[in-house]
């Protein structure tokens, strides 16, 4: 009897180890493949992370299965909250590896994505970023891909927009230790100088700062035409309101993270005229997949008690999911290494446009949407492309 018990325990342990290594799980006769969701649902970037997750959840609702070797597998999403923190990001990434994920989606926030990159690489489980725009996310990591444009492009787009609007002097505000904020700020700064612009003030702040009046007072004295302040959703309304309270009239600009309705709600009338770059506009669907997504996702947002305004990061989350499915089908396998190899060859018609990857694992995106806050809403201004 004891021998039988020991054998059963050994068999159970062996099967759990096999599952933890990645691949498909057999449950009640239905095969299952796990896709991990590596996103911040709490912390400084929790609001944006939730929007990105909603896009992934909706994609899973629209496409709940995938075919491997002619067999249908149910796709199970396993979510891990990286809490907008680099240390927590490592723990969250490890938990997704332990869940048996064959591929992982995320994250909102370049810093946490970079922090988790080696975990995915070492375990040979590919990750597909949705909106993590810092070049370091994929650089030197054969197991990290992404479906968004990059910060060098985004920074250049915003510098060119400022210059074309007549700005000759700019101030830049960035967050210390935040890869997204410091990276995008520097790309804007470099591009603006190359155009002939003058950067009259460079200011930095610590994480969890709530009082920006000191650095904004320095900026006011420099009298810039524009302030470029790429930062988190939580920080944005504080910078905007305090700038206007100090009587600063310069145009305030930022990157993709600022496309969140909570910024307008919290900044109120002070948000009027704020300009940002983003990945998607539901008034101008680029593909048939986009048209289908817009109609269905607006209903899904209402079901989840969200405004029926589609965040660009939700569209990217959806695209990351369908790209993962395409790679799984192309690989004809649930093994991470095979899916990684297939990702290099995918060609997907996504919501945000065609998705094919270059040698670094970055999507060949060449278009950004410029939006402005007008009448308490984000309004489309123009599309900017580069060749």
From TrEMBL:
Keywords: Receptor, Signal. It comes from the Bacteria. CDD domains: PBP1_ABC_LivK_ligand_binding-like. It holds the Pfam family Peripla_BP_6. Gene3D superfamilies: 3.40.50.2300. Residues 32-377 form the Leucine-binding protein domain. Residues 1-20 form the signal peptide. Belongs to the leucine-binding protein family. This is Extracellular ligand-binding receptor. It comes from Sphaerochaeta globosa (strain ATCC BAA-1886 / DSM 22777 / Buddy).
């Amino acid at each position: 009897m004891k021998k039988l018990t020991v054998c059963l325990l050994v068999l159970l342990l062996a099967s759990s180890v096999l599952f933890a290594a990645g691949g498909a799980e057999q449950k009640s006769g239905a095969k299952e493949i796990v896709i991990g969701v590596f996103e911040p649902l709490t912390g400084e970037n929790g609001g944006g992370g939730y929007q990105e997750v909603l896009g992934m959840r909706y994609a899973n609702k629209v496409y709940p299965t995938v075919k491997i070797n002619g067999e249908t597998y149910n796709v199970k999403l396993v979510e891990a909250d990286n809490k907008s923190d680099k240390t927590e990001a490592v723990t969250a990434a490890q938990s997704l590896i332990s869940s048996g994920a064959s591929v992982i989606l995320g994250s909102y926030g370049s810093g946490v994505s970079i922090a988790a990159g080696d975990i995915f690489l070492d375990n040979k489980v590919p990750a597909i970023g949705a909106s993590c725009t810092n070049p370091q996310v994929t650089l030197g990591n054969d197991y990290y891909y992404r479906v968004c444009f990059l910060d060098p492009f985004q920074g250049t787009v915003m510098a060119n927009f400022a210059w074309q609007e007549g700005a000759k002097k700019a101030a830049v505000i960035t967050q210390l230790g935040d890869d997204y904020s410091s990276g995008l700020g520097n790309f804007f700064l470099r591009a603006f100088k190359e155009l002939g612009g003058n950067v009259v003030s460079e200011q930095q702040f610590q994480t969890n700062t709530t009082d920006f009046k000191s650095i904004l007072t320095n900026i006011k004295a420099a009298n810039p035409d524009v302030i470029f302040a790429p930062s988190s959703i939580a920080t944005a309304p504080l910078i905007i309101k305090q700038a206007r309270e100090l009587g600063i009239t310069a145009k305030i600009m930022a990157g993709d993270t600022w496309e969140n309705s909570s910024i307008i709600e919290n900044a109120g009338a002070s948000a009027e005229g704020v300009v940002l770059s983003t990945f998607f506009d539901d008034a101008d669907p680029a593909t048939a997949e986009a048209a289908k997504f817009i109609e269905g996702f607006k209903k899904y947002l209402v079901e989840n008690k969200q405004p029926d305004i589609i965040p660009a990061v939700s569209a990217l989350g959806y695209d990351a999911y369908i790209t993962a499915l395409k790679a799984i089908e192309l690989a004809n396998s649930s093994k991470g290494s095979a899916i990684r190899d297939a990702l290099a060859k995918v060609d997907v018609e996504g919501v945000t446009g065609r998705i094919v990857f270059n040698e670094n694992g970055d999507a060949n995106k060449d278009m950004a949407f410029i939006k402005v806050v007008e009448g308490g809403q984000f309004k489309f201004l123009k599309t900017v492309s580069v060749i």
